């Protein structure tokens, strides 16, 4: 690992002296344009698409420009420390790869989950593996190597399948269970609807179910023998509506720390902590599940204030750069999830492309801290961020 993440730019400039330019872009706009040319239309629509007219999805990104930070000068930042300890994980930075249900489809070989996991191993950036995957959660965790990983759960309606997934994640070595709250049904996504494309109904990214012993008990034949029947069975178990009354049941399924993903209201955060939840994950699902909402970054300060350091605060939705990561930390996030950018890296260059994207994000964050006088994440939080304009 580099001395500092920002040293990545020295590698790039040094290689340039030998006539070598980066194989992949270091900025999001160019990365996005390259990925759009490389990905199939159906996959691109699924990765890029949001709910309704995508206003909330767009606001998630633009809202970061409404927050500003004040530099502090005459501070020695020759050494920076971006490390974080949370949920039993010791991580080199607050950045993690947020769960994305079609990660498996983002590489040419259809094993994008393994490619992302290998990128986690190579970069030290934690991977939050999705329930929806093209490879079993056990294989994905193994590919993460020594880098701690989390497992995201779409809670099945069938309690035996839910228990099995949780127990498998715990046995595999994941450090936390991230329970998504807002996706028991799919939001209105015009891009996918106009193309009549829903990958799961075509049998994609369902391996965690198809290999699960409890799920297989529900089938008259193995998924390999009758894939259509297996997909139909999946439709019957996906998406349990969770309420506060279910938290005790969830707690009984695993010894892992439980993180609730989708908490956007301070009162919900307080209640969750009172009921024993181990982490709060502020997210509006990147604007993919509901339109008409407030940008996720604008909801983070109130939730973080309600949490008041009692449990870790995770955040995603709209992260596109290293400066976005730093702003999220300044506004109260302990761990910051990256989504679409790493998907684009996978599409362009598999594991190596993903690592390049992660290093670029971390380099920008590190250099921002260096020039603005914030040697630690604690200093970033003390500096805070100010709302610009009205």
SSE order, one letter for each helix or strand: HHHHEEEEHEHEHEHHHHHEHEHEHEHHE
| Beta strands, count | 12
Query: Level of helix content?
Result: 40-55%
| CATH-derived architecture | Alpha-Beta Barrel
- CATH topology-level name: TIM Barrel
Q: How many independent structural domains? A: 1
CATH class: Alpha Beta
pLDDT averaged residue by residue: 97
**Terminal CA distance:** 43 Å
Can you describe this structure?
This protein has one domain (5-387): TIM Barrel (Alpha-Beta Barrel), CATH 3.20.20. It starts with 7 loop residues before the first helix and ends with a strand. The protein is globular, with a radius of gyration of 20 Å. It has 17 helices and twelve strands. The protein has 390 residues and is α/β, with parallel strands linked by helices. The model has no long low-confidence stretch (mean pLDDT 97). 44% of the residues lie in helices and 11% in strands. Helix 2 (28-38) runs antiparallel to helix 16 and helix 13 (266-274) crosses helix 14 (296-307). It has helices spanning 8-16, 28-38, 41-48, 55-62, 112-123, 137-143, 159-172, 190-194, 207-210, 213-216, 227-237, 247-253, 266-274, 296-307, 322-330, 340-372, 377-383; strands at 67-68, 84-86, 89-91, 95-97, 126-129, 149-153, 177-180, 258-261, 279-282, 313-315, 335-338, 386-387. The strands form three sheets. An eight-stranded parallel barrel has the order 4-5-6-7-8-9-10-11, surrounded by seven helices. A two-stranded antiparallel ribbon has the order 1-12.
């Amino acid at each position: 690992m580099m001395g500092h993440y920002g040293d990545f730019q020295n590698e790039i400039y040094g290689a340039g002296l030998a006539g070598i330019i980066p194989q992949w872009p270091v900025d999001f706009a160019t990365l996005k344009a390259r990925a759009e040319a490389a990905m199939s239309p159906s996959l691109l629509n699924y990765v890029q698409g949001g709910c309704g007219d995508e206003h909330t999805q767009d606001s998630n990104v633009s809202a970061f420009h409404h927050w500003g930070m004040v530099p502090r000068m005459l501070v020695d930042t020759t050494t920076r420390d971006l490390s974080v300890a949370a949920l039993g994980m010791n991580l080199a930075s607050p950045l993690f790869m947020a769960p994305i249900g079609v990660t498996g489809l983002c590489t040419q070989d259809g094993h994008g989950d393994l490619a992302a996991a290998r990128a986690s191993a190579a970069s030290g950036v934690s991977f939050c593996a999705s329930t929806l995957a093209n490879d079993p959660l056990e294989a994905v965790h193994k590919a993460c190597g020594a880098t701690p990983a989390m497992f995201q759960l779409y809670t099945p309606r069938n309690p035996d399948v839910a228990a099995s997934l949780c127990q498998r994640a715990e046995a595999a070595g994941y450090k936390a269970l991230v329970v998504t709250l807002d996706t028991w049904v799919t939001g209105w996504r015009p891009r996918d609807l106009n193309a009549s494309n829903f990958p799961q109904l075509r049998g994609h990214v369902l391996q965690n179910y198809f290999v699960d012993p409890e799920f297989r008990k529900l089938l008259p034949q193995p998924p390999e023998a009758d894939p259509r029947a297996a997909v139909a069975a999946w439709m019957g178990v996906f998406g349990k509506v969770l309420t506060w009354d279910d938290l005790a049941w969830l707690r009984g399924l695993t010894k892992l720390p439980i993180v609730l993903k989708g908490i956007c209201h301070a009162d919900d955060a307080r209640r969750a902590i009172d009921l024993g939840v181990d982490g709060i994950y502020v997210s509006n699902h990147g604007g993919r599940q509901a339109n008409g909402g407030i940008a996720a970054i604008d909801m983070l300060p109130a939730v973080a204030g309600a949490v008041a350091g009692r449990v870790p605060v995770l955040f995603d939705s709209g992260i596109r750069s290293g400066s976005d990561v730093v702003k999220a930390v300044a506004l109260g996030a302990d761990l910051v999830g990256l989504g679409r950018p790493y998907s684009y890296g996978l599409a362009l260059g598999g594991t190596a492309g993903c690592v390049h994207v992660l290093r670029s994000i971390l380099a920008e964050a590190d250099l921002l801290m260096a020039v603005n006088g914030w040697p630690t994440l604690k200093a970033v939080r003390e500096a805070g961020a100010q709302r610009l304009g009205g």
